[in-house]
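Researcher: Going back to the complex we discussed earlier. I've cleaned up the inputs and rechecked each line, so this should be the final set. Can you rerun the prediction on the complete assembly and write out the structure?
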Amino acid sequence: MALEWKFTAKEIAEKPELFMSGHRACAGCAPATVHRLILKAVRGPTIATNSTGCMEVTSTIYPFTAWKIPWIHTAFENVAANASGIEAALKILKRKGKLKHEHVDVIALAGDGGTFDIGIQALSGAVERGHDFLYVLYDNEAYMNTGIQRSGGTPLGAWTTTSPAGKKIPGKPQLKKPIANIMVAHEMPYVATASPAYWIDLLKKARKGLEVEGPAFLHVIAPCPRGWRSDPSKSIEISRLAVETCVFPLWEAIDGEYNLSAPSKVIALRPERKKAMEEYLKTQGRFRHLFTPEFKHIIGKIQEVVDRRWQRLLKKCGMA
Amino acid sequence: MVLTTQKGPRAIALNGDEAVALAAKQCDVDVVAAYPITPQTIIVERFSEYVHDGEVDTEFICTESEHSALTCCLAAAAVGARTFTATASAGLALMHEILYVTSGCRAPVVMAVANRALSAPINIHCDHSDSMVERDSGWIQIYSENSQEAYDSIIQAFRIAEHQELSLPTMVGLDGFFLSHTLENVSVLPDETVRKFVGQRQIPLVKNHEGKFVPYKLDPENPITIGPLDLHDYYFEHKRQQEEAMRKALGIIRKVHDEYAEVSGRRYGNGLVDSYRLEDAELVTICLGSTAGTVKTVVDQLRAKGVKAGLLRIRTFRPLPVQEIIKALQHVKAIAVMDRSCSFGGSGGPVFHEIRHVLYDSNIHPHVVNYIYGLGGRDMSQLLVQKIYRDLARILETGKIDKSIKFIGLRE
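Model: Rerun complete. Updated structure for the full complex:
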């Protein structure tokens, strides 16, 4: 895959905004930043589709829209089926000479609820069928739009309104589902993780996902200040810390071959650079209850999970 | 199976599912997305054969669920493609959410429903429970009496659904097994005739958020936002527009039916209701679907004995042709409304609700009773239909109704 293009700050600034300001996302909303960035990576005519969720709700309150490209939303659990139908229609209309454009890209965007949980069936089906589209998971680790309920993407120990920091059960007792690995297991051509803190990496991965033939899956960590109980001015810092603590390592798997991306590779090569979990947890009120004598041991558990998953990833990348 | 390239119509033996698949093929559908479910399966099997043998140029998406099947059709229609799907029973129930989204997005998807009972207990045979659940979903609903009509209705459905003034999804019902799996002589039109009749998919113009009129589709040259968040300040108006379109559909269904009659020589009443020996009828049965065939036989038997019996078949159930129903029943004295589904805890079946309601505001007030019949594929025999007419005769004679809602053809 020859990638001739480069993304520089100047080029990105000069590219027209396709996800416009004026939307109703909260202050410090990383998913909104992710949407803006993803649309900076498009290579030509593009159709986007969102699942139900924060970004659908905040970007399209009728009669306003933040989208400068054709966009459709139908329901919560089916964004990958939207993409399948769009891609099939583009293909046949082109074959029948009814499409004006040489090629139109398709991007599906969904949150963690729409991907880990209710949308996984449609996603798995679309990938198995091999539709050519980029799926972007903006992961803010809970159902934020409905008021911060836990999802399959919520990490161990996190407070949400349905995994409250109770006296007996301190936050979510279960682990975060390894969704990107599940997608790699589909033997799809391109899977990657990204963080808005490393925006050039994110843009390049989005572009690769568009250029690859067949389905591509991009898992982006996207802090939500309301749900994470974090400072709205720190969303990008937190998404950097997620990478630096190996909570959310950056990697890509091209045709199933795992490779660490630069920000995580540095840590793999120089493990002393790996930051302690607490630094990440402390930035977010959703983990506050863990900093008590009673529940401090949960932090150790979280560290164990992070370390175990990191080691497994290093093995997959041939760096263990 | 290239049988339809000949110049004139030709009769071939097809079951209902095959007739539907052939009609969809002749309509040159761009995208078909479907998931297999008995008794619809033959439709997707035949269509797969057409695709794999290169007899049709269609993107056929074998989805992982009916929910995704309808979603694919909806999204493909939003790009400007002609789309088709088929399902039954639990499959239609799984689509329920997206049925509303499809009509709300005004996506002109055409769907065949091989009518089948809903679980539990699981049952693969015919009744109308599946599509009756969806009568408020904003889809046009046409019910076929036989496989010929299923074939004809699918062709008409594309013209209706894609009509510029409607852009409404359209469902064509065919009774599971009774039609879907029963071989019948079906007169099919040449491919060219069908293609000419349905024409190219038309895309209506809509005002975009900048006040410019643009084609209502996902087009990079004229980007629009479809399926936005629509709150209390606009949602209500948009729903009202759907109801307006439904009302308008009555005239368009008739018009398309008339034009099709010119091409095919076949008519189903006026396209909305189909009357049989109703002119001077006093005792009348009202039903949907394949049961009408049995009722017609009984009507003939009764007429031979001098009984003024008749039948009104509702072909288009949504939108409900209120005026046509009232007009057709002008001389009628006693009516038996037959429902092949049950509205548990309600006052009779859904067709009964509609008919009695329609008559309340009309100039006529015949006796109206309800028979729930044939659930889970239970046969509706001539004997049972004869019993219904006997009941009606008794009601007319005595002026008394012992029970206005009855179950017929079951152990009690």
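Model: Worth noting: The interface with chain A takes residues 30-31, 33, 57-59, 61-65, 67-68, 71-81, 83, 97-98, 101, 105, 209, 217-221, 223-231, 234 of chain B (CB under 8 Å).
Researcher: Good, that matches what I expected from the previous run.
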